[in-house]
Amino acid sequence: MWARVKGKTENALLRLPFKAAYMFRPGIIEPLHGAKSKTSLYNLFYTLGRPLFLLIRFAFPDQILTTEQVGRAMLAVARHGFPKQILESKDIRTAAKN
Predict the structure, then answer these.
(1) Is residue 50 domain-resident?
(2) Is residue 11 part of a domain?
(3) Cα-flanking dihedrals φ and ψ of residue 24, to 5°?
(4) This prediction's pTM
(5) How far is CA 75 from CA 56, 82, 83, 97, in A?
(6) How many domains, the chain?
(7) Residue 85 domain-assigned?
(8) Which runs of E-coded beta strand occur in the chain?
(9) Is residue 42 domain-resident?
(10) Domain range for residue 60?
(11) Rg (CA), the chain
(12) Distance from first CA to last CA of the chain, Å, rounded?
């Protein structure tokens, strides 16, 4: 259900008369610097999955980002824009480097 709601929200935002609107679609986000989710199930996932992040990063390099990368990408896109309105994980990684 969340994917359907997110899709409807993205489409509604893209139809609004903003100068620009960008939709971020990250895969797995690895929390850094002590960041914690408000959702206990996510915290459990990250606690149990932390040892696997290196393996996941190796197996699916374009699907895992850090909280720092997502934040840097959002700031860069807000400041300078981006060629695409919908940013997947690979695009977010690229934007974070700018």
Answers:
(1) yes
(2) no
(3) -100, 130
(4) 0.81
(5) 26, 11, 15, 11
(6) 1
(7) yes
(8) 23-25, 28-30, 64-66, 86-88
(9) yes
(10) 20-96
(11) 15
(12) 34
